Structures are given as C-alpha cells and as structure tokens.
Amino acid sequence: MVKICNSSSIACITSNCSLFFVYDELQEWPEEDYPPYANGPGYILSSDIAQFVVAEFEKHKLRLFKMEDVSMGMWVEQFNSSKSVEYTHSLKFCQFGCIEDYYTAHYQSPRHMLCMWDKLQLQGKPQCCNMR
User: Fold this and answer.
1) DSSP, res 28
2) Please, what's the largest Cα pairwise distance for the chain?
3) Which residues form the signal peptide (predicted)?
4) I want to staple 56 with a disulfide (CB 3.0 to 4.6 A). Which of 61, 74, 88, 115 is the partner?
5) Residue 114 C-alpha from the chain's centroid
6) pTM here?
C-alpha cells in the first residue's frame, strides 16, 4: 500500500529551513512535472514490488532522488508500467502524532517510542503513550 501524489500542482518549498527545500529546482529536478511520491510517515509494499526494487537496484537501473519517499514513488511507478499497482491510504499512518492501533506514529520522542515498543511487546497490539 502506497499513497502516491503527483505534486505538479504543489509549489516548491522555498524556505531553506525546511527539509524539503529545493535549492535549485531545475538542477534538482529539470523535468516539467515533479515525480510521484509516497506521501506520509510510512508505506507498506507488497513483496513483488520490494523484489522489483532490489533487482533493479542490483542492476543499477533505479533513479535516485534526495528524499526516499520521492525515490520510492518513482520506483513504484516504474514497477507500475509493467504490472498494475493498487494504491490505498489509511489514517493509521498517523502524520500528526499517535492514534490507537496505529501503523506509524509520527513526531514521537525517544521516551514515547520506548514506551510504545514496550506496550506492543507486552500487549501484542499498538498503543499510544501519553506521558509528559
């Protein structure tokens, strides 16, 4: 499962304080449309896509970009040209903190991550930690 966005309608970030700052848009990506990308704090791939990525990597046939979600989006699109890909999105890929029964929890402190890992090991399901 991968959420792919085509950012041709999204303006480049021009603040050099941002991780996603594009210093020289034409130098970093000279093509007219920005590549598709996996948007969010995580993604899950089927084994056939993962095997395709590994095989293409070993043959040096993958195009790389400085952000891994953009690279992954391009690789999935490359796979998609030979076999249909089903894109889905779940709110369990939480981009704003933590929700119960999460797949990913974004912006967690190391202390929260350890607590969440302990809960997962003890209770067998993902649960948030609301400590301060």
Assistant:
1) H
2) 50
3) none
4) 61
5) 22
6) 0.62
Contact 28, 67 (CB under 8 A): no
Task: Domain ranges for the chain, please list them.
Answer: 4-80, 94-123
Neighbours of 83 (CB within 10 A): 9
The neighbour count for residue 18, using CB atoms within 10 Å, is 9
Task: Map residue 44 onto helix, strand or coil.
Answer: coil
The total of other beta-carbon atoms located within 10 Å of residue 102's CB is 22
pLDDT of residue 40: 65
pLDDT < 50 regions, the chain: 1-11
pLDDT of residue 14: 52
